[in-house]
Amino acid sequence: MSGIKVVATNRKAAFDYHLEDRYEAGLILMGTEIKSIRAGRVNLKEGYVQPRAGELWLTNVHIAPYDPAGRYGHEPRRPRKLLLHRREINRLVSRVQERGYTIVPLRMYLKGGRAKVEIALARGKRQYDKRQTIAKRDAQREIERALKERHDGR
Prior knowledge:
By secondary structure, this protein is an alpha+beta fold. The protein is about 35% helix and about 35% strand. It contains 4 helices and 9 strands. The strands form 2 sheets. Strands 1-8-9-2-7-5-4 form a 7-stranded antiparallel sheet. The chain has a two-stranded antiparallel sheet with strand order 3-6. A hairpin with a 2-residue loop joins β4 and β5. It is globular, with a radius of gyration of 19 Å.
């Protein structure tokens, strides 16, 4: 079993949502999609997970077309079925039916030669929460800068 190679991350997810439970899910892909994923040509930014007929589908994630495939390639934003245990799917679907919850992809990676996606149950942040996050990040940056200057100046 080989290590994990992260292909794409959704950095905006932690800014826009309060992340709660995290899950690792497999993906059902076409051959040209896995080749594009291995090349790192994936964008998770606008992606989300949608429950449909007792299954979870990764929607609006852009996997770039694999050029050598020509016209036999795949559609970049097609919905892709996620593979999880039935218990996990049922838990996620019941939480999504509650008001305010959604499921977002956090990162896509290769693990043992297979594409996996890390998804999280998330609740949307309000505007003031986002401002608070920015303020904390700026304050932390100022502290680090002051400590560095103090350490360098001796």
